[in-house]
């Protein structure tokens, strides 16, 4: 079975980034998305805006709607103060699984709780 784009991003990160280093993981996601395949992550430019907002607000708790591969969750978690928590929600179980691995590889899993949810059922 062929890998999804999200799984390919995860594999690239695991092969090239430094485990336990959130910035290295973010840099390698950005590299993959700029050089290989576009993905709907925040990216480095918008990521800097997010970083500045987080530094200014200095929250203890944050909520993210839409995890995708875990890029912004890692960006947020790395800036949370000690004891800070991020609740991130994802509709697609396959993306949540990739995000969980990505977040663990980045070393911020203790700050992040991923919740998989359905908006509606038919």
Short description:
By secondary structure, the protein is an alpha/beta fold.
Write a structural description.
The mean pLDDT is 93. The protein has helices at 5-16, 22-35, 43-57, 71-77, 93-106, and strands at residues 61-65, 85-90, 112-116. 32% of the residues are buried. The protein is globular. The chain has 122 residues and is of the alpha/beta class.
Low-confidence stretches: none
Work out the number of β strands.
Answer: 3
Helicity, as a percent range? 40-55%
Q: What can be said about the biggest beta sheet?
A: 3 strands, parallel
Query: Termini separation (Å)?
Result: 28 Å
- Tally of individual helices: 5
Strand fraction equals 5-15%
What overall form do the CA principal axes indicate? globular
Q: How are helices and strands ordered from N to C?
A: HHHEHEHE
Mean pLDDT: 93
Structural classification: alpha/beta
Keywords: Catecholamine metabolism, Methyltransferase, Neurotransmitter degradation, S-adenosyl-L-methionine, Transferase
Family: Belongs to the class I-like SAM-binding methyltransferase superfamily. Cation-dependent O-methyltransferase family.
GO biological process, one term: dopamine metabolic process
Protein name: catechol O-methyltransferase
SSE topology:
Blueprint: H1 5-16, H2 22-35, H3 43-57, E1 61-65, H4 71-77, E2 85-90, H5 93-106, E3 112-116
Helix pairs in contact: 1-2, 1-5, 2-5, 3-4
